[in-house]
Description:
The protein is an alpha/beta fold. The protein is built from 16 helices and 21 strands. It has 3 domains: 212 residues, Aldehyde Dehydrogenase, Chain A, domain 1 (3-Layer(aba) Sandwich); 209 residues, Aldehyde Dehydrogenase, Chain A, domain 2, CATH 3.40.309.10; 132 residues, no CATH class. Helix 2 runs antiparallel to helix 4 and helix 4 packs parallel to helix 5. The N and C termini lie far apart (65 Å).
Amino acid sequence: MAGGAVWDVTNPARPDDHVGQLTLAAPADVETALAAARIWDAPVALRAEVLTRAADLFEAAHGEIFALLAREAGKTLLDAVGELREAVDFLRYYACEALGLAAPARGVFACISPWNFPLAIFTGQIAAALAAGNAVIAKPAETTGLIAALAVRLLHQAGVPRSALQLVPGPGADVGAALSSDARIKGLCFTGSTATAQAINRARAAHLDPATPLIAETGGLNAMVVDSTALPEQAVRDILASSFQSAGQRCSALRVLYVQEDVIAPVLAMLQGAMAELRLGDPWDLSTDIGPVIDGAAKAGILAHIDAARAEGRVIAQADAPGHGTFVAPTILRLPGGIAALEREIFGPVLHVTPYRAADLPRVIAAVNAKGYGLTFGMHSRIDDRVQAVTTAIRVGNAYVNRNQIGAVVGSQPFGGEGLSGTGPKAGGPAYLPRFTQSPTMTVTDSTGAVADRAALAAALAALPDPRDRVLSVDDTLPGPTGESNRLSRHPRGRVLCLGPGPVAAQAQAQAAGAAGCSALAATGAVAPDWLTDLDPLDAVIFWGDDETARAYDRALAARGGAILPLIRDQDPAPRLTLERHLCIDTTAAGGNAALLAASG
């Protein structure tokens, strides 16, 4: 290893605690890793056995893992236990799922993971790629590179070949950019911000094969609705956990709370009382509820947002925080105008609250959908019809009723969003692992004919119905504890433009998209790549033509703002044309006969 800069790792809760040093990868190290990478060409049963052994080693090393999670990432012991459990669940789940795979591995996967779940997400990405037989080059957040190094050491100890799993820590602008721009990479897996995912996608489209998948889970502006029938003790318990656990540093965390105006005063009073009982401090202390945010830059950004709200008189309540380290006190802010007024995700312990009238609930849901994110959503209500109406209308990957909206369980609550919140498929779900394997592509040689009429094409797209709320299938058999319902439903991705080439291929694509429940438009002539940068509404494109044209289309789609849209070249496009949504309901939380409450609120 040539080695680059040395990263000094300090404890975010105690700046005087020097945890260790991390040597970042130099450009030569990235090249060495790419040159040395070899797919894990072992029988699937052996790969499953090794991953299961790794799960055992992770559990045996729980003490070292907990200590490192606390000192490097600022994780409380409660969060550390949950993180180890999730990492182990990923290893065991993907080991079992791999036994049903038939398609071969794609090749070398670059797995780029975040600091907020430095063991669980890091391990989950790697485990999926390895289970499918790929080689992995893992790029963790440099902030939590020591935890990543420990995980890789345990995976190697379990029997994963070094050529199949290599660690290259370093800044995303250097290491991440190099990996997402190298044609030897045959797949990308990323968890992080929406803006970074878009940058990675543009690099992928410019340099990699157009069929190279980007499996991304990104941020969210997550909302919860509490109506007048909710049990306030349950609602406050779940608001507190969803907003402030892990110092609010979860992509699934609650950011915007809508409370029916009839009950907002008592709910806020109870919430402030509960928040005042939270203890901030050293995450290694068992009595600590909330640890620090990850670093000084994160703290400064969150405090700037709070200070701006304070200047406008919008601070409702704020807890106390230690004067040392990178602690941010949990804070509740008023948010006039609701979610539409929040310009970006505040990744910390900040909850924005707005009242709503009962008659305006449909408008609230429409406003949440209009923001374009689609990760998590929560609702507290004891009116079954109301719950049904809201959960049918909301467009998010994971919805939770009468419980908190964090802590998805592998295999029980497959996790991942849509729109600005991710590309799918859901991690820890049945559709995830096949995305790491090869899918036969289709190549058609045909003339596209005369140039299409752009105005007519745009009008035809605009006339397509939006099918995303149509239910294709429902799986109610997902496991879970007694008193909890877990349901995975599948929905059409949306409106699909079919580019052939040629009318025969375009019609075949449109038929396939229609069979998958999507609204499809078969192009009747040649479509210039630059048109795809702003044609709307558009949710996916299918093209079976030559690589050069495919790359031009891919680059145009990547240049768009907003959600990452797929260019589908698969012979069977159906798996790429499906959205997954999960609904989790605490069926024990309703309390009493909800039918008697139907007239209230």
